[in-house]
Amino acid sequence: MADDPIRFGIIGCAKIARKVSRAISLAPNSTLYAIGSRSIENTKKFAIQNGLSETVKIYGSYEEVLEDPCVDAVYMPLPTSLHVRWAVAAAHKKKHLLLEKPTALDVAGLDRILDACEANCVQFMDGTMWLHHPRTAKMKEMLSDSLLFGQLKLIHSTSTFSPTPDFFENNIRVKPDLDALGALGDIGWYCIGAILWAANYQLPNTVTALPALTRSSAGVILACGSSFHWDEEEDGKVATFYCSFLSSVSMDLAVSCSNGSLHLKDFIIPYQENFASFEFTSGAKFAELHLGWTLKQKEVQVACELPQEALMVQEFARLVECIRNSSCCPETKWPEISRKTQLVMDAVKKSMELGFKPVNV
């Protein structure tokens, strides 16, 4: 561990906080300093279940974490409906903010958070872990090789899982007052983010939600999809995604270009922590008489020294340390990525509300 690590406070004891608390302990430049929830009993239970050190401060409210002068940064896995209130409060207390996705219910809410972070010189990053895996950087490096892949033409992503019946009764992701975006916000965020990543964060011109929409009796989105289109002057590329709480597990990403294609089936959570892989082809054609292919897909394996969530924490802490020790300005890359993802997600939702009509972004 670094001599002067970034001291994290966690606000909320959601299940994902278990994973990130472990990541904070694994990141060499970070330490878990405090955790708080709505009651001291909940916080104590979380600390015991996750084997937290006795040195971690245990608080019975979110306010106490934010008031602690020793907390440098907060990780916030609260329900989306609470993000604006508590994220803005954290920024006003000069706490750097690692915020779970979806970042807000709409871009107007996210803008309030980002404005507060900018006004208080606070680093912002959302909790999209897969972006920090070295496999992601390797894929981007290869896709940038115009000789290997050519022009980007098509992107498709999926994120689905089939939970237990208890999920549909009690999980916050199907409660309209807590996470009204449902599957679109929870796992559609990854699909939209992957499409934008492949398109170098160039926003599509139009977004059209697909009629394959399923809602719960409370009106929460359980499954949905959408198509994106870029104008001809932007090479006329297209993208599609599908996300669902009603299908077996999938985390597919496919990127097709004029001369090659790239595929992986675990882009959000790799099959293993210590390495991940993807497959690609370049220059493949059909064999004579269309009896096969001239090339098979090649596999690329990428080692990972730390789990991707620990790499996320490490990068976030590095940025915070730079601000603290060298008077650096917050890195704008991460809030810009979050805002573009939120903008597109808003457009998908608006298209649904308009009866699946195209929406300009």
From TrEMBL:
GFO/IDH/MocA-like oxidoreductase domain span:
138-262
Question: What Pfam families does the database record attribute to this sequence?
Answer: GFO_IDH_MocA (PF01408), GFO_IDH_MocA_C3 (PF22725)
MF terms from GO for this chain are: nucleotide binding
| Transmembrane segment boundaries | none
The Gfo/Idh/MocA-like oxidoreductase N-terminal domain sits at 6-125
What family classification does the UniProt entry report for this protein? Belongs to the Gfo/Idh/MocA family.
Recorded protein name is: Gfo/Idh/MocA-like oxidoreductase N-terminal domain-containing protein
**Which organism's genome codes for this protein?**
Tetracentron sinense (Spur-leaf)
Q: What taxonomic lineage is listed for the species of origin?
A: Eukaryota, Viridiplantae, Streptophyta, Embryophyta, Tracheophyta
